[in-house]
Amino acid sequence: MSVVGLVLVAVGFGVLGLAVREVRRLRVDVRRVEARAEVVADEVDALPPELSRTFGVGARHLVSVEILNLFELAHKESALTRPLTVLTPRLLRDVVHRRLIGKVRQGLDDQGVRADVRLHRAR
């Protein structure tokens, strides 16, 4: 009875070893495919994955804007923003982004530009 148990344990370890080897091989394959995908994406000027899900992969052009002085803009709006910057910086950031999006939409609309203005968070 104990010999059968030892054989089963040995077979279990063998199967576990094979599974670990296969998982490692698959991880190497995934890294290789990801590297190749990045090269191909660079060659065709593809959008990052988080944007391509939203905008698709067609020949659309995007204008990207990163606000570099977000809290300075907030401080110009109200004196209450300084304490909020310390307490809830993420909430303040969201409020400022939403106001700026509204201003951009209005400015584009005033110029007769039809545009889809959205906020996307970079990773």
- For the secondary structure, the number of strands is 0
The share of residues in helices is 55-70%
The whole-number mean of residue pLDDT values reads 82
Shape designation: elongated
**Main structural class:** mainly alpha
Short description:
With 123 residues, the protein is an all-alpha fold.
How is this fold's topology laid out?
Blueprint: H1 2-43, H2 49-55, H3 70-77, H4 81-87, H5 89-110
Can you put this structure into words, describing what you see?
There is one protein chain. This protein is mainly α. It folds into 2 domains: 45 residues; 65 residues, no CATH class. It contains 5 helices and no strands. Helix 3 packs across helix 5 and helix 4 crosses helix 5. The mean pLDDT is 82.
What are the main properties of this structure?
mainly alpha, 2 domains, 70% helix, 123 residues
